[in-house]
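note to self: dont lose this again. the chain is below, predicted strucutre after it. 294 aa total, dont forget to put it in the shared folder this time
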Amino acid sequence: MKVVRVCGGFGNQLFQYAFYLAVKHKFNETTKLDIHDMASYELHNGYELERIFNLNESYCSTEEKLSVQSTKNIFTKFVKEIKKYTPFISRTYIKEKKHLHFSYQEVDLGTKDTSIYYRGSWQNPQYFNSIASEIREKLTFPEFTEPKSLALRQEISEYETVAVHIRRGDYLKHKALGGICDLPYYQNAIKEIEGLVEKPLFVIFSDDITWCRANIKVDNVRFVDWNSGEQSFQDMHLMSLCTHNIIANSSFSWWGAWLNANPNKIVISPDKWIHYTDAMGIVPNEWLKVSTSA
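---
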């Protein structure tokens, strides 16, 4: 049995789910999701994948969950394997090097017929590029019911649109991710896209639309301010329907662009994702990287 831990917000859950599908595809044996930690996760909207996508996946029970004791000084390499013998006959624990580590590593995912627990964010598309079509098929959003979203979807289908995702909120004081995608980045990104796309319609998504209205100065624009709480995922759905994307250094933003099925899409990403390390492995090579500096 293989078990993949799920924890974090919606974007993080999507990366872990994509990794889970890749593991399941690689070994073609029983693979389960561990969502136990979501019961105590108080940020965002809890475990969202099943509610949104109506998934039919297997979840490990408390008894099946690997009871591995870990401390900060145990894992000194990218992964550390700890062999245990209960509750499984043979067990391996595979953990990413550290939180917010986005570089792809040739991780030995173990062998068939060995019980393995995977704990990490797995935020690099190289882990699951080989099954991209299967992931997109699984991640089919439900139909819109909100009249404003229905109207915007129609408008998106009629114009060349650019989804712009601006994350503020918890990022304003975030030591690792905050202060990167500020106004200079969006000004640079908008200038870049305007040089590539003629008279686009900008569609702005944010957790601080008031700030966006005051600072994002473009001629043709729509501000999306009606999706919140358990309906926040509708922003990602709408972003994925736009022609092009300008993203923040956010997993939510990343998936809005990755799920965009337009084969000719232009995706603009910041040239810096995190403060203390090179984490640009999360950004696909074909996406454009724009300076975050003025």
